[in-house]
Amino acid sequence: MSRFEHNRLISPPSPDAGSGRPPSAGLNARPESGPRGSERETVHVVIVEDNPQLLDEMVFQQVAAGLSVRGARDAVALDRLLREAPCDVLVLDLNLPGESGFSIANRLRDPNRLGIVILSARSAVGDKVDALACGGDQYLVKPVDRRELTATILALHRRLRASRQEAGWRFELPARRLCAPDGRALELTPQQATVFALLVRHAGAVLDRQQMVNGLGIEYVDFPDTRLNTLISRLRQQLEAFDSALQVRTWRARGYAWVGPPISGLST
Questions:
Q1: What CATH code is carried by the domain that includes residue 18?
Q2: pTM reported for the whole predicted model
Q3: DSSP symbols for the chain
Q4: Which of 47, 145, 191, 259 could staple 91 via S-S, CB 3.0–4.6 A?
Q5: What CATH number is given to the structural domain containing 212?
Q6: Same domain assignment for residues 203 and 213
Q7: For 31-41, what is the mean pLDDT?
């Protein structure tokens, strides 16, 4: 058994990605004190590399440096991992089976969700320019010292975290995703997202039950009060569990109002 299998760090590859091998027993697994001590929060990383030995080695080294790391060997395995849980930083090879690293970076580029470090043996200036234009935030050429990779991941994470905190709360209605200033994200159901957007667009105002139901595109007489009560209750529970500042207030015999922080991304 690979030293990573008990922690489920390596995602099984898609059928065309080949089979993996255990990492070298000679790797130093002792944590690095510098990055671990300087970062108070866990940084979640996914490394995409089609060479199984190199992938195992990089995952082991970055875990030893104090990061939370998962590995994938192609785009299919990467997408599977991201559906299970998001990551803060993606370390991405360019030459991959199936979808290329260029395409993956372009598809996933979003500084509000994750940072992308391109790690490739391709050292030509044109490749670097193309990769950065496709969505890469940093470009490192293989072979790279494990300490340089760790430092690059942490520096990118700090920069993106600071920019997110300046940006404040944001709601992405098409994706039904509420993004916190610290980069965390909460996904809502379609009806929850519609109700939440309606409340936020009228922040501070009390919306009566009929306005809420009509906002869902449903006739008021066709939507039982108990169903709306359940919808609002579950939405409130999810929001408050995610962050105590996210508050929907109930005004008895009047309706509901958003009294939480300002949320960008929605026009009034």
A1: 3.40.50.2300
A2: 0.56
A3: --TTGGGT-BPPPPGGG----PPPTTS--SPPHHHHHH--SPPEEEEE-S-HHHHHHHHHHHHHTT-EEEEESSHHHHHHHHHH---SEEEE-SS-SSS-HHHHHHHH-BTTTBEEEEEES---HHHHHHHHHTT-SEEEESS--HHHHHHHHHHHHHHHHHHHHHH-EEEETTTTEEE-TTS-EEE--HHHHHHHHHHHHTTTSPBPHHHHHHHTT--GGGS-HHHHHHHHHHHHHHHHHH-TT--EEEETTTEEEE-S--EES---
A4: 47
A5: 1.10.10.10
A6: yes
A7: 45
